[in-house]
């Protein structure tokens, strides 16, 4: 829970920062705006644990899924760096592999809370699986998960 005047910064993290995490960033930002909570957030961003796609736009299927739900997407892939651990309050990742990578990379004394974004899913669907090698339905499934997780996270913060 956060105080009303305290601004939160959150980064969503997956492997390559082109499917799940930019979707989570876009959906979360959209939900925050829908609840008129922009003033409660210092930063909302996303990154990957690997640098495979640095500088690339989100996967066309991920972006199309967001747009189909009226959610705008604008992001350029980046890799998590040590500075993110001090500039973000939360690093919320999509699966256990991301979680292990983030925990292993976390500098001593870091303020960032590192955890699964799925921990906030009221349905208990904790892992947001990588849809990259699958069909469109995987992106739609991810979309529904990140909506639930976004609302769950806002509730956890005491904002909903």
Beta-strand share of residues: 5-15%
- Describe the strand arrangement of the main beta sheet, using strand numbers: 2-1-3-4
Mean residue pLDDT: 96
> Regarding CATH, which class?
Alpha Beta
Low-confidence stretches: none
How do the helices and strands follow one another from N- to C-terminus?
A: EHEHHEHEH
Provide an overview of this structure.
- With 160 residues, the chain is α/β, with parallel strands linked by helices.
- It has one domain: Response regulator (Rossmann fold).
- It has five helices and four strands.
- The protein has helices at 20-34, 60-68, 84-87, 96-105, 136-156; strands at residues 8-14, 41-48, 90-93, 113-116.
- Strand 3 (90-93), helix 4 and strand 4 (113-116) form a beta-alpha-beta unit.
- The longest helix has 21 residues, at 136-156.
- The chain is globular.
- The protein starts with 7 loop residues before the first strand and ends with a helix.
Keyphrases for this structure?
single chain, 160 residues, alpha/beta, Rossmann fold, 5 helices, 4 strands, 37% helix
Write the layout of secondary structure elements.
Layout lengths: L7 E7 L5 H15 L6 E8 L11 H9 L15 H4 L2 E4 L2 H10 L7 E4 L19 H21 L4
Parallel strand pairs: 1-2, 1-3, 3-4
Helix pairs in contact: 1-5, 2-5
Give a summary of the structure in a few sentences.
The chain is an alpha/beta fold.
């Amino acid at each position: 829970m956060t105080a009303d005047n305290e601004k939160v910064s959150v980064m969503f993290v997956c492997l390559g920062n082109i499917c799940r995490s930019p979707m989570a960033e876009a959906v979360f930002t959209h939900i925050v705006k829908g609840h008129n909570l922009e003033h409660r957030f210092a930063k909302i961003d996303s990154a990957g644990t690997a640098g495979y796609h640095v500088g690339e736009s989100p996967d066309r299927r991920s972006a199309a899924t967001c747009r189909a739900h009226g959610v705008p997407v604008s992001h350029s892939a980046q890799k998590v760096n040590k500075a993110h651990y001090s500039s973000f309050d939360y690093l919320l990742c999509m699966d256990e592999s991301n979680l292990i990578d983030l925990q292993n990379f976390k500098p001593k004394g870091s303020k960032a809370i590192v955890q699964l974004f799925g921990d906030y899913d009221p349905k208990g669907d904790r892992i947001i699986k990588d849809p990259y090698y699958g069909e469109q339905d995987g992106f739609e499934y991810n979309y529904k998960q990140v909506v639930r997780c976004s609302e769950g996270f806002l509730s956890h913060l005491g904002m909903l």
